[in-house]
């Protein structure tokens, strides 16, 4: 039988034959598809040559397409950091300056905080046209009711200036502990403040991002409406980094003053030996008792989200010292200390845990308190500047 001369296959209107099978690789490294003579049904897109064999069978030679090697374990490119205009209230000026030092992508912007003669705010945002199309953040501090109105005036105004996105950083959510009703007529203020934030106007980028550090109860995220996206961060990573720097870092135990603080933080501190205290009521008085764990010979760090009067922490310190703790320190994210109650906490000065604390770590979420206790042992300030700089990039 005469061999079929080589020719070009038509590239239009052929029908694919499912019965075609691969014959193997030819000498040129091309794939050969076997098909019956006179009934070419293969579809080719691109160059395909028909060649003949001594048996009269025809083959289609398709040039081999070079493969792209897989990059196993390759690192995806870093997301470019967005430029952020950071506004701040006067209380947060020092922290805002530290945040700006953490990242070249953050530019500080000021606000003229003035008042009229009757005491109401007289506010002005300089160069309002200059922030159009920019990512904007506001560092707030609702340390007292008297500053609430002026700061919400700014928070409500900024999204209306045609900005690309808006982020509010509220390190301390001040009404977080007032979320329950114990008697008919009680007014829980945590959901009320959450409603204020939920009514922030939308920016061009959509809902406002609200960054809060160690809110008192995680279920409070459900107090916020759809116009705001709460992002809950924590100061615990700052504590863990500081504990690694201690000379006795291998002898640390974590104590929780009650079951609530254990539920709140134990997953972030699960690699440390845990001690749990509990509050019991005897008559009209409440006492702290040891529930689980052994503090004997350990450097025990009491962890909670906030401190006000400090009574619970002091009672917990006494219990741990009586059970043989070698050192006692404390950490809270929010050092509120109304009326100067921070003065109740003494420095042990190496004498022993019965006399005081080795360290008392707080963050600068409450800037007025942080300024009062700065450089006063046992207090140390763990700054939120780096976590805030990272949060505005989310």
UniProtKB/TrEMBL annotation:
GO terms for molecular function: ATP binding; kinase activity; magnesium ion binding; ribose phosphate diphosphokinase activity. Residues 279-334 form the Phosphoribosyltransferase domain. It comes from the Eukaryota. The keyword Nucleotidyltransferase does not apply. Its EC number is 2.7.6.1. It catalyses: D-ribose 5-phosphate + ATP = 5-phospho-alpha-D-ribose 1-diphosphate + AMP + H(+). SUPFAM superfamilies: PRTase-like. Residues 85-197 form the Ribose-phosphate pyrophosphokinase N-terminal domain. The keyword Cell cycle does not apply. GO terms for cellular component: cytoplasm; ribose phosphate diphosphokinase complex. Keywords: ATP-binding, Kinase, Magnesium, Metal-binding, Nucleotide biosynthesis, Nucleotide-binding, Transferase. It holds the Pfam family Pribosyltran_N. One of its GO terms (biological process) is 5-phosphoribose 1-diphosphate biosynthetic process. InterPro entries: Pribosyltran_N, PRTase-like, PRTase_dom, Rib-P_diPkinase. It is an enzyme of class 2 (transferase). Gene3D superfamilies: 3.40.50.2020. Belongs to the ribose-phosphate pyrophosphokinase family. This is ribose-phosphate diphosphokinase. It comes from Dioscorea cayennensis subsp. rotundata (White Guinea yam). The gene is LOC120280107.
């Amino acid at each position: 039988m005469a061999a079929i001369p080589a020719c070009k296959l038509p590239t239009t209107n052929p029908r694919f034959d499912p019965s075609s099978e691969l014959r193997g690789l030819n000498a040129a490294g091309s794939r050969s598809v076997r098909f019956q003579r006179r009934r070419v049904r293969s579809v080719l897109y691109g160059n395909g040559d028909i060649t003949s064999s001594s048996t009269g069978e025809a083959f289609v030679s398709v040039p081999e397409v070079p493969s792209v090697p897989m990059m196993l374990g390759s690192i995806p490119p870093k997301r470019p950091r967005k430029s952020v205009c950071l506004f701040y209230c006067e209380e947060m000026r020092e922290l805002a300056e530290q945040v700006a030092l953490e990242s070249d992508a953050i530019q500080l912007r000021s606000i003229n905080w003035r008042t009229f003669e009757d005491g109401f705010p007289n506010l002005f945002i300089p160069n309002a046209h200059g922030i159009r199309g920019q990512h904007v953040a506001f560092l707030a501090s609702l340390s007292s009711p008297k500053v609430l109105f002026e700061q919400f005036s700014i928070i409500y105004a900024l999204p209306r200036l045609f900005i690309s996105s808006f982020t509010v950083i509220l390190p301390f959510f001040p009404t977080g502990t007032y979320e329950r009703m114990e008697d008919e007529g009680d007014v829980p203020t945590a959901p009320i403040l959450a409603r204020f934030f939920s009514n922030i106007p939308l920016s061009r980028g959509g809902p406002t991002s609200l960054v809060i550090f160690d809110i008192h109860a995680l279920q409070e995220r459900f107090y916020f409406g759809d116009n705001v996206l709460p992002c809950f961060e924590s100061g615990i990573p700052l504590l863990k980094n500081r504990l690694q720097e201690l000379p006795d870092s291998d002898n640390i135990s974590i104590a929780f003053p009650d079951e609530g603080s254990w539920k709140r933080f134990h997953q972030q501190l699960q690699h440390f030996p845990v001690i749990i205290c509990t509050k019991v009521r005897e008559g009209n008085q409440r006492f702290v008792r040891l529930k689980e764990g052994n503090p004997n010979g350990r450097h025990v760090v009491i962890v909670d989200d906030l401190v006000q009067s400090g009574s619970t922490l002091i009672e917990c310190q006494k219990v741990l010292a009586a059970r043989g703790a070698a050192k006692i320190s404390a950490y809270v994210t929010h050092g509120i200390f109304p009326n100067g109650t921070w003065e109740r906490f003494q420095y042990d000065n190496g004498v022993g845990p019965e006399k005081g604390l080795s360290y008392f770590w707080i963050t600068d979420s409450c800037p007025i308190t942080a300024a009062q206790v700065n450089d006063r042992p046992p207090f140390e300030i763990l700054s939120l500047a780096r976590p805030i700089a990272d949060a505005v990039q989310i």
